[in-house]
Amino acid sequence: MRLHNLVTRWPLKLASAACLALSLAAVASPLAPSSQVAQVAQKAEAAKVLRYAFLVAETGFDPAQISDTYSMTVTPHIFEALYTYDFLARPVKVKPLTAAAMPEVSADFRTWTIKIQPGIYFTDHPAFKGQKRELVAADYVYSFKRFADPALKSPMWNTVDEWGVSGLAALRQRALSSKQPFESKKPIEGLQALDRYTLQIKLDQGRPRLLEQLARSDLFGAVAWEVAEQYGRDTMEHPVGTGPFQLTEWRRSSRMVLEKNPVYRERFYDAEPNADDAEGQALAARFKGRRIPMIDRVEIAIIEESQPRWLSFLNREHDFLERLPTDFVNVAIPHGKLAPNLAKQGMKLSRVLAADSAFTYFNMEDPTVGGYGPEKVALRRAIALSIDVESEIRRVRRGQAIVAQSMVLPHTSGYAETFKSSNGDYSAARANALLDLYGYVDRDGDGWRDMPDGSPLEIEVANQPDALSRQYDEQWQRNLKAVRIKVRFLHGKWPEQLKMARAGKLMLWYLGTVAAAPDGLPALQRLYGPQAGNQNLSRFKNSEFDALYDRLQLMPDGPEREALFLQAKRIQAAYMPMKTHVHRLVSDISQPWLIGYRRPLFRYDFWQYLDIDTERLPTKR
Known about the structure:
- The protein is α+β, with helices and mostly antiparallel strands.
- Helices cover 29% and strands 16% of the residues.
- Among the domains are: 153 residues, Dipeptide-binding Protein, domain 1 (Alpha-Beta Complex); 230 residues, Dipeptide-binding Protein, domain 3 (Roll).
- The longest helix has 17 residues.
């Protein structure tokens, strides 16, 4: 672990996790700072500061250039979309954010007209030359166009392209063909500011669920053209939006600090939980009418190793622990409930079956595991059958997951608890038989299987160099040894491996995904041909699957659409371009002074809905 990733008073030689979990005794603090530093520290402590840690590093903060969960946790607190999800409503409900009302939508879902609230301002920045910069409809026109700019190489361009905005793809193609700068100010039919506060979006085909995309502040918040043009390709480091927080400090892969936006408009806690939601009703009663954000500052560390992240929480240096490390499940939440010693201290547990999955994708262009011939399909299916997911859940995840049957995520359309497929099967015997049948046998007598042509068969698994990842390495070794397939590991930092994955340079990689909206279709992007190299890291291309995806885009929700999801899930199981392992049970633990936290299902922004009871804060943090 890099020491600068964690400011902690715990000694480097640590006692066992079980003993430490039962003790919160403070360790002697460092020498007192100078009087000037002490005054600064005292002022900072008087503010309401949220401190917690990410377990994976961010990549940056330009909505058009990111696709990772951790960057997209920060951006919606800086930028604001037209709409948002009610913080407490279950099932989820979309409501206006910067829009003045819900959109006017044509009967064919092709024309969307949206009024913007007047009086919303970007945070102050030198690019505005001392003027207050109001948010206007043209800012969304500009922000949506940025995804089409070839110079930005947006990993989410294909997502925006699927909206079918009239004229946007042609604008991008002109820039690619002419090799000239993207004409961001050139008018197109599909994105127009009809007046200062009226945005109109016209689509080539109807998109019944576009509203869900327009509620994603992680990607589709408004960007000011003056700032973007000032920084050019360095916009990842200089986010300026209209949201409740602004970035004030960033040490890449180490530390992020955001402070309350001093010019944030008057906005109040107005979440509307269901009548039978006791927890939600209690939060609404406590906070209704309070101006948000209620905290002053957010400090985020990057702590990739499980033990120091857990200890920093126990040592009261962090206000909540997002995603309890599996190493400490038995001591923190035995039998799925908060341990008595933690509950006695006033800590709170938030535990849900998340709208997410963990999966292994196979690079369909890789000479070993890729391809569509029967022997290649057999190899992938055999590897998938060899993966003992129940053992993974028991040994590594400590019971905090369920076996997945497809790529479609819980709480989204297309997901069915009763659905069963070979994706969820484990059988080393069937895997061995399949490999034997298609010629993956030991030809040189070394005890390991070879390719049908006699060349060595070796699987390269990409992973990270942390302690948890090493446990997954052990699972891979155990699983593949049972079918006599040799395995090697390619370790690297997550952001760098993501770049390699997009470039098609990894054979296979085990990673996770989280739903951003209640529609199950985005999960299918991972196998949609036009998304190859972006969301479709496996580079899978299948005309039948693509046709299903296109039909799902156009159809309203209902039984007919659910039937198409079923067909898509069966194609995944048949060709096995990706093996979905699990859907995770996510457990977050809050300190007693952190109030209002509840894990969102489909959104990343939640800081503005939290409060800190300063009277209950520990005297030393």
